[in-house]
Amino acid sequence: MNFTSRPFIFKRLTSSFVPRFEFPKYNVPLSDFKGHQVKALKKFQYLAPQLNMVVEIRDLRAPLSTRNVLFDKFFLAGNEKIKRLIVYTKKDLMPQNKELLNTLIRWHKELNENFIILDSKSPSDAKNLLKILQWESDKLLNDSVPLPMGYRVLVSGMPNVGKSTLVNSLRYINYGKKNENTKRRKVSKTGNEAGVTRSTSEIIKISKEDSQQGIYLIDSPGIGLPGRVSNPVAQADYLLFLMNLQKPKNKVLWYPESDTKPTNDIYSIFRRFYDMKKISDTTAAISWINQWKRKGKNILFDIEPLLQPNEFSYKEYLLNDLKKIESYKLENDKLNILGSSKQLFL
Ligand SMILES: Nc1nc2c(ncn2[C@@H]2O[C@H](COP(=O)(O)OP(=O)(O)OP(=O)(O)O)[C@@H](O)[C@H]2O)c(=O)[nH]1
Ligand SMILES: [Mg+2]
């Protein structure tokens, strides 16, 4: 898809359907921290001295919305020695988008960050990630850095980005068939709705039983940001707005399969859900958003920076996000968990 010019999008319009080009400003409640997320942040601080690496998971289709500046703060709070690898999941839902890839390369170069892109469910992708972890672990071994607790990797990220799925794929490489009736055993529960993992996991061994140095994972609950739009109906409407902008002709995609007409009316989508089951607008909105999370192929959630690549600064965006958090006075006590409010990325 070409995001560099709006006229390109116009060309794709059907004669009968015109998507919205402006999204209405809703005055809706903003998100707050949830109890189990605050607990997880505290646990991160507690675990920090044992950690060698943090693998930070983001959704490739929402590279901005699933970046959490709280994790950046974590690295400023005296944890700079921990290696950091950014992993974009759901590659299978955004295949071969060169423009997006080039954008990510540019952004991460600016911040001197390493990233990879994968499908959390793919065994070969998991194997490649394990090779990276093995390589990092071997480096310490060769430098005779003592690791009495093995090489420890925390898997962190926003809710529902695919952390537990990836943990399971990594575990499966060396332990999938050996244990328990040769059935594939999940070490970490996964699910379609956000908030499946409720607490930070025990350590999960992923290196071979007889390896010289163990590599261990710690799964964690998704941690969101306060101050984001939390109303599911508004979120669903925004998704519909984006979907129509990007795929105006794609009628079925992840509307309920039975209906094929594109629409700008989010309630008409909800009604298609009602047909199947009597549910509230909120439940329908959540179900529909979850369909995007699972199978929203080629629909980006963060579209503006790709439409206006020259006007968008990644650094500025993140500093802004950080400022928003700093000014989130109500929750200040909780945010102090992650140390001082030093400026980032400067
Ligand atoms: N297509 C596709 N689906 C994925 C991928 N990774 C995860 N999923 C799906 O996304 C949903 C969420 O996955 P989880 O692994 O439970 O996500 P999580 O980050 O552990 O979620 P929380 O614990 O709730 O924060 C599940 O339905 C997974 O099957 C991926 O790379 N590609
Ligand atoms: Mg999970």
From TrEMBL:
Q: What GO cellular-component annotations does this UniProt entry give?
A: mitochondrion
Domain CP-type G, which positions? 35-226
* Pfam families documented for this protein: MMR_HSR1 (PF01926)
Concerning InterPro entries, the annotation shows: G_CP_dom (IPR030378), GTP-bd (IPR006073), P-loop_NTPase (IPR027417)
Q: List the Gene Ontology MF annotations in alphabetical order.
A: GTP binding; GTPase activity
One record GO biological process: ribosome biogenesis
Q: Which key words are in the record?
A: GTP-binding, Nucleotide-binding
Any signal peptide, and if so, which residues?
A: none
Protein name as catalogued: Mitochondrial GTPase
Organism lineage: Eukaryota, Fungi, Dikarya, Ascomycota, Saccharomycotina
